[in-house]
Amino acid sequence: MNIMTEAGVEQKLAQRTNEPPIKMKGEKVNVHYGEKRALFDVDLDVRENQVTALIGPSGCGKSTFLRCLNRMNDTIDIARVSGKITLDGEDVYDPKIDVVELRARVGMVFQKPNPFPKSIYENVAYGPRIHGLAKSKADLDGIVESSLKKAGLFNEVKDRLLESGTGLSGGQQQRLCIARAIAVSPEVILMDEPCSALDPIATARVEELIDELRENYTIVIVTHSMQQAARVSQRTAMFHLGYLVEEGATEKMFTNPDDKRTQDYITGRFG
Amino acid sequence: MTDAISTLGGGRPVSIHTDDAAKARLKTRYAAEMRFKWLGAGAVALAGFFLVLLLSTVVTQAWPALRMNYLMLPLDLSAAKVDPAKLDGFDFQGVINDALAAEFPDVTSRQDRRLLRGLISTGAGTFLRKDIAEDPGMLGTTVDYAVPLDDFADLYLKGLLADVGTDEAIATTVTPSGTTGDIELTFGDDAMLALARGHGATEGENGALTLTSGAASLLVALNGGTVKLTALAPGDGGTVVAKGLVIEALDSNAPAATGQAALRVIDTPESSRKISDKEIVWLDRLQSEGLTESRFNSIFFFTGASREPELAGVWGAVVGSFLTMIVTLAIAFPIGVSAAIYLEEFAPKNRLTTIIEVNINNLAAVPSIVFGLLGLAVFLNFFGLPRSAPVVGGMVLALMTLPIIIIASRASLRAVPPSIREAALGIGASKVQTVFHHVLPLAMPGIMTGTILGMAHALGETAPLLMIGMVAFIVDIPGGFTDPATILPVQIFMWADFPEPGFQQKTSAAILILLAFLVIMNAIAVILRKRFERRW
């Protein structure tokens, strides 16, 4: 109620002018899986150096939208994407865009930790190596170390870099996957429920990490946890049945949403 | 009983899970479980029993073939006998025959000498020629040379050709009437009559007995010679007079005292064995003089095929099998794995790929002889490739193995979790990088297992190779992929078909070698799987 006071409006205006530039933009994004339509005309902006959370009940299309951003949907034969998604103004679905380059710029962390069944070092070094980011072995060592440090994993694994990445605990594995994504120096990191397979302590650790990473990267995170969205994100988008219901600053979304469905979902009335 | 139930009913509330009907249901469930368990255990036990039976039969059959008897003969290779300048056309067999004849100076008739020569393998001269070529130092001296025995002589010494009893002392005096030719032996008591009756002698008049060739052979050894009994008749004063044929001349016709003469009974009648009494007596003498020697059968392991059982070896077939398998592997593995990768990772899922898939699965079930016909029609008749060659055999077997490899490879590619693919794609690996850096290494243990099992299958295959002429009788060991060759299963098939008893053991021994081949291949499959297995 008091948001609509003058002070509130002023604050809002100030916020708007301070808003960081748009990194990725979705315009009228539609996705079909065969005959079934999964997304309906979604318009969503992702702003630079912010965490954008996508929330909504299961099957609402938030993961589908996320996977459109780095064209991971290409790997699903029956998926068809229409509409326009841009990265720094370039259409990512333009046939001239190289999907390998796109995925190097838009990295991804998955729901289930999926380290390669190789050593910790190899897990992190693989990306830089295939993209030719390291000139020498020392270079590569440096990238691996700094990536692991940024992912907050270095101190835990520095003595066993050559041991298998699958031998780590779940939370460590997920941070290894984040380190692996960071190692390629992406601009955007997509996270698909990165904490759903983790216990609360590991979750807290990863959330902290996400907050730190915001400084250098643009992050889009899909989450089922309202609290997590509230804790880590600056902007939140609410999906429902393939539609983007509402999108806005996280604070506003959680305190005074415009749409009743958002309100109901956030307060736990459904979903 | 009723009491027990009522107290139970009183103690616990009766529900659909605790009443009598429920107990009965539970009982039938446990009974079914028990039945299944015992059926399963029975099936496993039965399978184990037959496996043990099979293996023990093959092994006991094959065992004698692993050793072979040689005759140690002093060969005179002095310049007077063997002219070092004319080695090429020299009759080395003759040298060996002379040395053997020298051991038996009594054997003079042409017929007997031929029989005596028959104790030695007809290939002995060839071995001697080869050994002299390798070591010319043997010439000019007398050397003790191990001469391979003929297959029948060898089998006799192994005890496989006739039931031979041990020598038993005769508990009476034996008086011979002469030292050579047909003689009469007079036994001090009539125990011999009963013994002869017991061994199938034919009854004549006045209690006389005749030992025909259909009866067991009774050999009496006395005074340093051997007499074969042919007929017996009761003599004066409880004695027995036996007619006999001297096989080895006696030293004298002095009477042998009690216990000095020995009787040897060969239960297998002479007419139904492949070795005569004479040969048996000769071999026994050679053996008792320590001239025979049982050695590791290197001929069997390291020579090629032959119609003579004692000269037949399995090495030609082993090399042929090996060369064929190399060709099969070199063709089937790369093509099969590539096809599997394409179909599983790259091919669009449409009607065409579905048809291809169904057909690959069907190909795995095509009878192998059909592949043989295909090989005959395409590789031999159309492309004009050489007959009986490992290269063609390998190509035919590769066609047969391809579907197996493709199916196994696709299954193991599919078993790689999609999360690994996503992880690689997610950091910007291309499709090919994803497959070759991550998916293929993880699928490799399964692919290799499938490949080796497919190869093992191909190794045991006979039918398709019959069609392309790999059943030919090939003596030379193949030196390359285009040389005529045969393979182990075909060799086994041919040996099993030969009538000579010596091939029976060889057949079993070759089966053992084939089994060993298969066991090794399967062991490699297991080791590779363990070695490359990664968990995720």
UniProtKB/TrEMBL annotation, chain A:
- GO terms, biological process: phosphate ion transmembrane transport
GO molecular function ontology, one term from the record: ATP hydrolysis activity
List the SUPFAM superfamilies hit by this protein, alphabetically: P-loop containing nucleoside triphosphate hydrolases
| Sections of the chain in a coiled coil | none
Q: Which GO terms describe its cellular component?
A: membrane
Q: Which domain of life is it from?
A: Bacteria
| InterPro entries from the UniProt entry | AAA+_ATPase, ABC_transporter-like_ATP-bd, ABC_transporter-like_CS, P-loop_NTPase, PstB-like
Alphabetized UniProt keyword annotations: ATP-binding, Nucleotide-binding, Phosphate transport, Transport
Q: Which residues does the UniProt record annotate as the domain ABC transporter?
A: 24-266
Q: Which SMART domains did the record assign? A: AAA
Spell out the family assignment given in the record's similarity comment. Belongs to the ABC transporter superfamily.
Protein name listed in UniProt: Phosphate transporter ATP-binding protein
Q: Which organism is it from?
A: Mesorhizobium alhagi CCNWXJ12-2
UniProtKB/TrEMBL annotation, chain B:
* InterPro entries, per the entry: DUF3333 (IPR024573), MetI-like (IPR000515), MetI-like_sf (IPR035906), Phosphate_PstA (IPR005672)
Cellular component aspect of the GO annotation = plasma membrane
Q: Using the UniProt record, give the first listed, main subcellular location.
A: membrane
PROSITE patterns according to UniProt: ABC_TM1
In which domain of life is the source organism classified? Bacteria
GO biological process: what's one of them? phosphate ion transmembrane transport
Q: Name one Pfam family in it.
A: DUF3333
Give GO MF terms, alphabetically: phosphate transmembrane transporter activity
The ABC transmembrane type-1 domain, residue ranges: 318-525
Q: What membrane topology does this protein have?
A: Multi-pass membrane protein
Membrane spanning stretches: 38-63, 314-343, 363-383, 389-408, 452-475, 509-528
Supply the alphabetized keyword list. Answer: Cell membrane, Membrane, Transmembrane, Transmembrane helix, Transport
Compartments where found: Cell inner membrane; Cell membrane
Family classification: Belongs to the binding-protein-dependent transport system permease family. CysTW subfamily.
Protein name listed in UniProt: Phosphate transport system permease protein PstA
Native organism: Mesorhizobium alhagi CCNWXJ12-2
